[in-house]
Amino acid sequence: MLLWKYGSDDTVNRMKTTVEIPDPLAEEAKAVAQRDKTTLRALIETGLRQVLRERRRKARFRLRDASFRGNGLQPEFLDGDWQRIREAAYEGRGG
User: Fold this and answer.
1) Which of 6, 10, 11, 54 gives the lowest tally of CB atoms within 10 Å of its CB?
2) What does the domain layout of the chain look like in residue ranges?
3) d(Cα 44, Cα 51) in Å, to the nearest integer?
């Protein structure tokens, strides 16, 4: 990927881009940045990093529900241990 280098050496790891946002949102963001004595760019970077971090957390693996329709454990296994359930599952299958 080829990126255009602009500015001083401290901007080498940055990409310049244009984003369109509604005027009221831009005005509110500028006001918050000014109030917090920061830049609009820093405010946008902080918000974007937070959203990306939250989405990464949500994207973690979740085991799908692979249960089969039914009524749960059969009566003969309600008081059984996992060894008994395993034996029944592999009965006649060499397990």
Assistant:
1) 10
2) 9-58
3) 11
Please check the confidence at residue 61 and state whether its pLDDT lies above 80. no
Q: Return the closest-CA partner of residue 14 out of 5, 23, 22.
A: 5
**Taking a C-beta distance cutoff of 8 angstroms, is the pair 85, 77 a contact?**
yes
Q: Enter the pTM of the model.
A: 0.49
What radius of gyration do the chain's Cα atoms show?
A: 28
What's the rounded Cα separation, in Å, for the pair 18 and 26?
13
Buried b (16+ CB within 10 A) or exposed e, 61-93: eeeeeeeeeeeeeeeeeeeeeeeeeeeeeeeee
